[in-house]
Write a structure and sequence with these properties.
globular, eight-stranded mixed β-sheet, 12 helices, binds zinc ion
Length: 452
């Protein structure tokens, strides 16, 4: 063969960084050659016309717990990336915990690479852990190819990954700052959580209100305050994961206005559910920090509107069904984690279009924003010339009810089951290859690690 053949993916609604328009996405090999006017499709191009279905950039999820190696019975590269492909995601960045060993050493990163090989439908990359005693590994992890770091200011509640105290964090930050990579932080402080929990002796732990009381907004606020001060002192890139309280928005806006390198994410579950309507014993909704009230939820949408919240990531955190303690419904002992890779796009679109947002907002929050955080924005997260040909064919007006068959993760355990959602993922393409279409997975597992 001579010149590589060009494929033209045509739609009345291609979501580009410059707006939504009728266009042909011209793909050559694994890359987008151009987003062209429909009249400019080369005569010899192989055409695929999606009509009214929109073409969005492939979503990038910067907050996923794949759990492999070590806890593959919870989730794994095969099932996690299948769930991602079905949900319109074309790249996942894996959190360093819940797998064993945790990704806090270069050897553990290599073990993860070995575990991923040949299993991924979509591309992936790793965050490295910052734990109590691995300050000496941080720069080596960066050199070995992690895209950034993650730490906890409170016990993560799982073996194999330790939280950091302020003192340990201070020891780590000069190393983090030298890498130039972001530090993603679970922003809740133990002090306020322990104090609140101590007051709940004898409380009814089947009640969601008890759980919310045990993790007060003040724990998030205190952590954010500390982190912003450390960001000012050490000049590292700070990223707050899964912001749940809107009370944090003012602090974060002020830090951004000051010019500090701070970014913020929230998750679909904080934007979809509300504490008032979570039933007693409904531990499928348990996550940390907790889902708060309906007014708080509207203010989080406001944070997205104002740009204080930069992106939406799933925090897809699966476990075997038994760990959700569905029988006893105890919010104290149930595993905290919500899975949403297969449905996050329609969950977000359902809420967003009701509030007057557009598909371009979804693309910014769920593709471009996470790609920028992970340092892969030049190749991922946008429908633009030179980027990887990662995209989603999405029917924004179609509706469906979430059933187990729609969830392609290892365990079909989800608080979204039974929800009526707007927007259906018809197909997902990774670097020009179709990996999801018509409810199935036609492609090979050709996803690979993204390396800068
Ligand atoms: Zn997480």
């Amino acid at each position: 063969m001579g010149a590589m053949s060009v494929r033209a993916y045509i739609s009345r609604r291609v979501v580009t960084p410059d707006g939504v328009r009728a266009a042909a996405v011209l793909v050559e090999g694994e890359r987008i050659r151009a987003v062209a006017a429909i009249g400019e499709v080369p005569a010899d191009a192989e055409g695929h016309d999606f009509g009214d279905a929109a073409i969005l950039p492939g979503l990038v999820d910067s907050h996923v717990h794949i759990n492999e190696p070590g806890r593959t019975e919870w989730e794994g590269f095969e099932t996690g990336t299948r769930a991602a492909a079905a949900g319109g995601y074309t790249m996942l960045v894996d959190m360093p915990l819940n797998c064993l060993p945790a990704t806090s050493t270069v050897a553990a990163l290599e073990a993860k690479r070995g575990a991923a090989r040949g299993k991924c439908l979509v591309d992936w990359a790793a965050w490295g852990g910052v734990v109590s005693d691995n300050q000496g590994e941080i720069e080596a992890l960066a050199a070995a190819g992690v895209l950034g770091f993650k730490c906890f200011l409170i016990n993560p509640g799982i073996d194999g990954f330790t939280m950091v105290t302020e003192q340990e964090l201070r020891a780590a930050l000069p190393h983090v700052a030298r890498t130039g990579l972001p530090l993603l932080v679970h922003a809740e402080l133990s002090g306020p959580v322990d104090a609140a929990t101590a007051k709940l002796v004898g409380a009814d732990w089947r009640s969601y209100a008890t759980y919310v009381k045990s993790r007060p907004e003040g724990a998030e606020l205190a952590a954010i305050g500390l982190l912003v001060a450390l960001c000012r002192e050490f000049r590292f890139r700070l990223h707050i994961v899964h912001l749940s309280t809107s009370e944090g928005l003012a602090l974060l806006r002020a830090a951004k206005d000051e010019g500090l390198a701070v970014s913020v994410e929230t998750c679909p579950h904080y934007l979809h559910f509300a504490a008032e309507t979570i039933a007693d014993g409904a531990t499928l909704c348990k996550c940390a920090p907790p889902i708060r009230g309906a007014e708080n939820r509207e203010r989080l949408w406001g944070g997205l509107r104002d740009g204080v919240i930069d992106l939406v990531a799933t925090d897809h955190s699966p476990c075997p069904p038994s760990m959700k303690k569905l029988g006893e419904g105890n919010f104290k002992t149930a595993w905290g984690g919500i899975t949403s890779l297969s449905v996050a796009l329609p969950v977000m679109w359902t809420g967003a279009q009701k509030r007057g947002f557009a598909l371009s907002d979804i693309a910014r929050w769920m593709a471009e924003g996470p790609a920028q955080l992970a340092g892969c924005g030049a190749r991922k997260g946008r429908m633009a010339a030179g980027c990887d040909a990662d995209f989603v064919v999405f029917e924004p007006e179609a509706e469906f009810v979430v059933t187990k068959e729609r969830l392609h993760q290892r365990h079909a355990v989800s608080p979204y089951l039974g929800e009526r959602l707007r927007g259906v993922v018809k197909a997902t393409y990774v670097r020009g290859k179709r990996v999801f279409a018509g409810g199935g997975f036609p492609g090979e597992a050709s996803g690979r690690e993204f390396r800068v």
